[in-house]
Give the backbone structure.
Amino acid sequence: MLEVKGITVRYSGLPVLREVSIKVDEGRTVGVVGANGAGKSTLLKAIMGSVKVTSGEINFQGQRIDKLATEQIVRRGIIYVPEGRRLFGPLSVEENLLLGAFTVEREADKQKNLDYVYEMFPRLAERRTQAVGSMSGGEQQMAAIGRGLMSTPKLLMLDEPSLGLAPLLVSEVFETVRRLQEEGDTTVLMVEQNVLEALELSDWAYILQTGEIRSQGPAQEVLASDEVRKAFLGM
């Protein structure tokens, strides 16, 4: 479905990503893990076209997309849930969700997607008229993911979904990702510092360090490797 081939991204002339290649197969959950500053968020922004790729290429469903504008990439079915959620605090839950459906033309389809999100997240349904800025961090993350689902994405990209959340809320967010795997057919690409939980959820994993892919493989094998257990889990 998605193939990133040897991309390099530079900020002010300095390489942030160096010849990075990843592949995401349809219907799978792929995790990209690594320390803060490894280039994980830059990878997602490059896929979305919000940062320029200086070499390499990005293909989605057999077509090259790294020369397209972000809006065109969104309309092809790639949705990015950014780090920090970036919701509109004064607006209600439902108003925020509907903003995610701007590519959906038929009102009936918008309502169908809204019903799906409320079924996926009953807590959002209970708070549909509440200002999203007054909700807990975990609830806001649910709203951010729900907003991403409103356009029926083919590929949903999650940027540090557990960032800044208390441990209990982190568990809730990862349970949300697990439910997407079990109940939907959405393909997920997730970048995370929370290595253990991310790898437990993923089918395939990449370890990104200082802008380069250091390791990859089935997520459970990566999780069991001595390198990952020592570097990220303190074991």
Notes: The first helix runs from residue 40 to 48. The chain is about 40% helix and 25% strand. The radius of gyration is 17 Å. The mean pLDDT is 90.
